[in-house]
Write a structure and sequence with these properties.
The chain is of the alpha/beta class and about 325 residues long. It has 2 domains: about 220 residues, Spore Coat Polysaccharide Biosynthesis Protein SpsA, Chain A; about 70 residues. It has 10 helices and 8 strands. The chain has an 8-stranded mixed β-sheet, with helices on both faces. The radius of gyration is 25 Å and the shape is elongated. Bound molecules: uridine-5'-diphosphate (UDP) and magnesium ion. Uridine-5'-diphosphate binds next to strand 1 and helix 3.
C-alpha cells in the first residue's frame, strides 16, 4: 500500500495565492499518485487562521471542486505556529506522514519528492533547509544569521535555515502531541521529539502574491519566544553577570574605604558616579526584563489555555 501523505498549509489572508498554490499542489499530487509514490487518499489541508479576507470561502471552494483539498477553520487568528499545530494534530492519525508548508509558495514544492524518498528510507523527520538566502532582504538575512548563532550557543538543537517546511511521520507527530506547552516554537520542539531525522536542501523563492504576514515586530517577538521557550540559559547568564558585578563591587568597595580612610583622598567625581548609576540601572532593568519574559511564559503555561480552537473541519475520506 502506498503512503498516505497529508500536507498542512496555514493560511492567514492568503486569498491571492490559494489558486496558484492549489493548482501546483494538485499537479504534484497527480504525478506522485500516478508514479505510485503516494496513495489516492492523500490530502492537502488548508488551515484558515482567522483570516480577514475571503481565504475560508476560497478553501471551501477548493474543497467543492476537488476532495483532494480539505480545510480547517480556526475560531480566530492564533498565529502561524498555533495554526500549524492545529493542522498537524487534527490530521496526524489520518496519514502516514505529514508535510507542513507555507501557503505563499516560498517553499519549493518539488522538494516534496526528496522528502518522501527520505521517509521511505526510514526517516521520521525530514527538515527542509534552504540552501541560500538570496531572496531575503539584507536585513533579514543578517538578523536570521545572528538568531541561529545565538540559538545554537544557548544549546538549542534547532536546524539553522530551516523554517517550518518539514515532513513528520505519524509516530513523530504522536511524540509532538505529548509536548503540552502553550508557547510554541515548533522548530525548537521537533528536534526534541527525537527519532531518525535528516535534511533536504531547497532554494527558497519569493512570496507568490500578497505581503509577508511577519512584520519586523512579529519577527522579533517570534525570535524572543524562540529563545526563551527553548532555553533557560539567558536567566543563568543574568546570575553570572550579577555574580561578577557583585564581586567587582566588593573589590571597589575595599578600594574606596582604603583610599578614603587610610590615604585620605576623596576622588569621588560626578561623572564616575553617574556612569555607575546609569550602567547598573540599565543592567538591572535588562535583568528584570529577561526574568519577566520567563515569568510571563510561566504565567501562560500554568493557565493551560487551549492552543487553538477548531470551528470547522471539512474533509472527505
Ligand atoms: N500565517 C498564519 N497566521 C498568521 C501569520 C501567518 O497562518 O498569523 C501563515 C501565512 O499565511 C503563511 C505562513 O504562515 O502561510 C508564513 O507567513 P509569511 O509567508 O507571511 O511569513 P514570511 O515567509 O514572510 O516569514
Ligand atoms: Mg512567506
Amino acid at each position: 500500500m502506498s503512503t498516505v501523505l497529508y500536507m498542512v498549509v496555514p493560511c492567514y489572508n492568503e486569498e491571492l495565492v490559494l489558486d496558484e498554490t492549489s493548482s501546483r499542489l494538485k499537479k504534484k499530487y497527480q504525478s506522485l499518485i500516478s508514479a505510485g509514490k503516494i496513495s489516492e487518499k492523500s490530502r492537502v489541508v488548508y488551515v484558515n487562521d482567522g483570516s480577514k479576507d475571503k481565504t475560508w470561502e476560497k478553501i471551501m471552494e477548493k474543497h467543492d471542486e476537488d476532495i483532494m483539498f480539505s480545510g480547517i477553520n480556526l475560531s480566530r487568528n492564533r498565529g502561524h505556529q498555533n495554526a500549524l499545530l492545529a493542522g498537524l494534530m487534527t490530521v496526524k492519525n489520518m496519514a502516514d506522514c505529514v508535510i507542513s508548508m507555507d501557503a505563499d509558495l516560498q517553499d519549493d514544492i518539488d522538494t516534496i519528492d526528496a522528502m518522501l524518498e527520505k521517509y521511505e528510507e526510514g526517516y521520521d523527520v525530514v527538515y527542509g533547509v534552504r540552501d541560500n538566502r538570496d531572496t531575503d532582504t539584507f536585513f533579514k538575512r543578517n538578523t536570521a544569521g545572528v538568531f541561529y548563532k545565538v540559538m545554537q550557543s544557548l544549546g538549542s538543537q534547532s536546524v539553522p535555515n530551516h523554517a517550518d517546511f518539514r515532513l513528520m511521520s505519524e509516530r513523530a507527530l504522536d511524540g509532538l502531541e505529548q509536548f503540552q506547552e502553550v508557547n510554541l516554537f515548533l522548530r525548537g520542539m521537533v528536534p526534541m521529539v527525537g527519532y531518525k531525522s535528516t535534511n533536504v536542501y531547497y532554494k527558497r523563492g519569493e512570496r507568490f502574491a500578497g505581503e509577508s504576514k511577519y512584520p519586523l515586530k512579529k519577527m522579533l517577538s517570534f525570535a524572543i519566544d524562540g529563545i526563551t521557550s527553548t532555553s533557560a540559559t539567558p536567566m543563568r547568564m543574568i546570575f553570572w553577570t550579577g555574580f561578577v558585578v557583585f564581586a567587582l563591587s566588593i573589590i571597589i568597595g575595599i578600594y574606596v574605604i582604603v583610599s578614603h580612610s587610610i590615604q585620605g583622598r576623596t576622588v569621588l567625581g560626578w561623572s564616575s558616579t553617574m556612569a555607575a548609576i546609569i550602567g547598573f540601572g540599565g543592567l538591572n532593568l535588562l535583568a528584570i526584563g529577561i526574568i519577566g519574559e520567563y515569568i510571563g511564559k510561566i504565567f501562560l503555561e500554568v493557565k493551560q489555555r487551549p492552543r487553538f480552537i477548531i470551528e470547522d473541519f471539512i474533509n472527505d475520506k
